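Re-running Methyltransferase domain-containing protein to confirm reproducibility after the cluster update. Everything else is unchanged from the original entry.
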Amino acid sequence: MKKTDTLFWNDPHIAKSMLEAHLNPDLEAVSRKPETIDKAVDFIETLVSKDAKILDIGCGPGLYTKRLADKGFNVTGLDFSANSIAYAKAHDAKTTYLVQDYLEMDFENEFDLITFIYCDYGALVPEDREKILKNSYRALKSGGQLLFDVFTKYSVMSQAESCEIDISDGPGFWSGHPYIALHGHFIYDEGVIGDRYAIYEANQNRIFNIWTVGFSESQLRDEVEILGFKVMQTFGGIEDRPFDENGELLAMLVEK
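Result of re-run:
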């Protein structure tokens, strides 16, 4: 797995396109539908007391943080996208929002619960997965918990390889100017899928590599336990569905 050097999240046009995708209730490309988010927040509410401090890393435009804050929790949202954080701040005065790379966050013994939602963990290269777990462990109080989700290995390996081309004469997802976008969806090592986007414009060419790692329960358990976490429960999604190895999602609640 090779990280993309190009700053995907900080490209102004792509950031705008991503925000629009986040806020579209009919899409599940970058966020889940509102009714699914509501169920997830209702479940999260059962995990902690009302005086709990919650940190949502990769919070985007605040779809979960605002709901949690409205329920009375002390919430902090952290995201690398200044565009998403600006939207979140404009629509939610109760939550503390920070523009920051979660790989660089430096909290210590501060939160009762950290949430990391929509399978971002599996989009990280192995060394960054280790880093986010270490950062989260340090940020949690003793007995604090981390709740996160990934795609199952079954769901990832059930996909087929494909190639697509998108020719845009004007503003589109990738640029405000005409472009050609080539998208390759490839299966690499067992449980790893790479989406490679090559964007060709008149004045520049860009490459984005987006990875998706699928996990078995035992693989994910090994990654968290080696860094000191205790696995409390596994689910088939943040909404507290029963876990199925042949399902789409694996959510895990781990404790410091």
